[in-house]
Design brief:
By secondary structure, the chain is an all-alpha fold. The protein is built from three helices and no strands. The termini are far apart.
Length: 79
């Protein structure tokens, strides 16, 4: 299990999911910016969707009886 998956599994609130998503995205941006300074943005965008889906799914489990429509996690990258 990755650190990100562990953070989401331990999340107790939607805010915890949001923080885990933002932290993981920042880590990946920094990693790719250092490795691939010319082309890091599309690489990060490819991972961002996966991170967002995982955070959104966990948030919906947490809020299963209290939320009706829409997204709970605010995306950092708009495609």
């Amino acid at each position: 299990m990755s650190d990100y998956q562990a953070a989401l599994a331990g999340a107790k609130t939607v805010a915890d999911c949001q923080r885990a998503y933002e932290k993981q995205l920042a880590i990946k941006q920094q990693e790719y910016r250092q490795r691939y300074p010319e082309t890091y943005r599309p690489l990060v965008a490819a991972h961002e969707l996966d991170y967002w889906i995982k955070a959104e799914n966990r948030a919906k489990v947490i809020e299963r009886d209290q939320h009706s429509y829409g997204n709970l996690i605010h995306r950092q990258i708009k495609l």
